[in-house]
Amino acid sequence: MKALTIWTAIVVLAALVGCERHDSWKTETGLKVIELQEGEGGLPEKGDIVSIRYTGWYLDGGKEFDSTARLDGPMKARIGKGELLAGLDEGVATMRKGGKRILILPPSLAYGEEGRPGVVAPHAWIKFEVELVDIEPGPAPILPWNDAGKEIV
Questions:
Q1: Selection from 132, 119, 123 nearest residue 63 by Cα
Q2: Tell me: the pLDDT tens digits for 128-146?
Q3: Nearest to 89 by CA among 35, 22, 140, 29
Q4: 82 CB neighbour count, 10 Å cutoff
Q5: Neighbours of 44 (CB within 10 A)
Q6: Reported pTM
Q7: In this predicted structure, what is the pLDDT of residue 146?
Q8: Do the Cβ atoms of 105 and 88 come closer than 8 Å?
Q9: Which residues lie below 8 Å from residue 97, measured CB to CB, with a gap of 6+?
């Protein structure tokens, strides 16, 4: 009974001071995802333009190495087109507008064997806190035929 009372007090105290439970998982590629805030609406599709805010830290030591706070606004990139680090691309592709996550990228999904000279060491694990600000439809694909199905010469 005493343990139940203590446990109840801990849960109530945690709720009062704003401690939250976050869902987390690891993907098949080794990306660790910690959901801070689930967004609303649909997921971005390959080729859509996502606007994101992020801050990147070294996993060893926790020093910041990059942030969109230094830009005039969120960064824009096409999802699934190699414009983001593989781990960011994978993590943002399953977010909804307004969502926030912490993404922990193994070297294979970050800067790999070479690193980012002068910024990120080779074989480094890195962490990003990411917010998906907006999703815009990507440009229409350029097709080698017209609407009638005939090839354009």
A1: 119
A2: 999 999 999 998 877 666 5
A3: 29
A4: 9
A5: 24
A6: 0.78
A7: 55
A8: yes
A9: 39, 40, 41, 132, 133, 134, 135
Q: Is the Cα torsion angle 33, 130, 43, 20 positive or negative in sign?
A: positive
Measured CA to CA, the distance from residue 15 to residue 7 in angstroms comes to 12
Phi first, then psi, for residue 36 (nearest 5°) are -95, -40
Cα–Cα distance for residue pair 37/134, rounded to 1 Å:
15
Residue type at position 10: I
Side chain identity at 119, as an amino acid letter?
V
The structure tokens listed for 146 are: 């017209």
In angstroms, rounded to a whole number, what is the distance separating the alpha carbons of residues 87 and 103? 8
- Give the phi and the psi of residue 143 in degrees, each rounded to 5: -100, 145
Residues 92, 108, 136: CA angle, nearest 5 degrees: 20
